[in-house]
């Protein structure tokens, strides 16, 4: 069974996360993603990781999975000529350089369109391709701050916090992949490519629900609220006898009634202090404390069994070891295991979303630097051995 993008060739010039995450999504669904890297250093992501057994990144094999790696020095005229040749037979080019970089290399959209009018140029940056901030250096963390997510993340009595992953970069990559597919669809009608311009801060802003009208119309500023959403109760993490955190979401009237019955206090659901969504929201803290006293009497597994049987949404706050041992993860193959040439069995998250007839798949871990040079340059561009060896001698590849 083929993925839906098996007829699409993508050139990925980006590094780190924002651009490569776009390529990662497209490659998962069958696109032939050729990652173009600097011959001397490669993508810095190859060297970034909290834990690097034997100097091997644990992040790069995931974000570069299903891709091919070629090396090419785009700062040289010969390297730029090679990229033009690659662009001629490609559908998409993804980059996350600062605006103007491709233009300085003679590889701007106008030039790429001259070479291949059907080429789609996907540009991922901190602030977008235009506007007064376009030329600023923009990392994902800055985009998260500007887009609003940092201001509402963390405890109210502490400085703003970050989410434990590179959320802004990954969001920008995801929206870029969506934009790529839309541009491919539009190309079937127009026959022409276009620019997909994704800003990290705008990708974060897209998640911010009613943040703007809450301030502009209602005069209310969202603040950091820790593990709760204000006035949404009960919906929080609660303690257990064995020290685990269990999240319970019982803020809907009917679900709250089921929780009260399970706790042995069915009348609480009809008590005017808690009978409505608004009333519970006004007494959020006292309600959470009351429920916490009850949950502390049970081990987490016993508590979850009771909650699930009663039809109350609940779940453990998972760590990696919980995911690897969970039967639901296993049944849906949410985690796949591939063999890494240096690290052996390598677990990673599977493809999302699932598709019934043209599913994506994880076929390979991230490649070695330049692993596919000969395959691409000699196979796709029909470069002879002498030319290839000359490029190597000149350190163009």
Question: Mind sketching the topology for me?
Answer:
Blueprint: E1 9-12, H1 18-28, E2 32-37, H2 60-63, E3 68-71, H3 77-88, E4 92-95, H4 101-104, H5 109-115, E5 120-125, H6 140-147, H7 167-190, E6 195-199, H8 200-205, H9 211-216, E7 235-239, E8 245-249, H10 253-263, H11 277-282, H12 284-295, H13 300-309, E9 314-316, H14 320-325, H15 327-331, E10 335-340, E11 344-349, H16 373-380, H17 385-393
Helix pairs in contact: 1-7
Written account of the structure:
By secondary structure, this protein is an alpha/beta fold. It folds into two domains: 9-207 and 332-393, 3-Layer(aba) Sandwich (Rossmann fold); 235-239 and 245-316, formyl-coa transferase, domain 3, CATH 3.30.1540. The protein is 38% helix and 14% strand. The protein has helices at residues 18-28, 60-63, 77-88, 101-104, 109-115, 140-147, 167-190, 200-205, 211-216, 253-263, 277-282, 284-295, 300-309, 320-325, 327-331, 373-380, 385-393; strands spanning 9-12, 32-37, 68-71, 92-95, 120-125, 195-199, 235-239, 245-249, 314-316, 335-340, 344-349. Strand 1 (9-12), helix 1 and strand 2 (32-37) form a beta-alpha-beta unit. Helix 1 (18-28) crosses helix 7 (167-190). The longest helix is centred in the middle third of the chain and has 24 residues, at 167-190.
Question: CATH homologous superfamily of the largest domain?
Answer: Crotonobetainyl-coa:carnitine coa-transferase, domain 1
Number of H/I helices: 17
- Output the strand order for the largest sheet: 3-2-1-4-5-6
**Relative helix content:** 25-40%
Shape by Cα distribution: elongated
Give the SSE string. EHEHEHEHHEHHEHHEEHHHHEHHEEHH
Can you tell me the number of structural domains?
A: 2
Per CATH, the class of the largest domain reads Alpha Beta
CATH topology of the largest domain: Rossmann fold
Summing up helix and strand content along with how strands pair, one would put the structural category as alpha/beta
What characterizes the major β-sheet? 6 strands, parallel
Q: What's the average pLDDT? A: 96
What is the terminal separation in angstroms? Answer: 34 Å
Low-confidence stretches: none
What percentage of amino acids are in beta strands?
A: 5-15%
Could you tell me the number of beta strands?
A: 11
CATH architecture of the largest domain: 3-Layer(aba) Sandwich
Radius of gyration: 25 Å
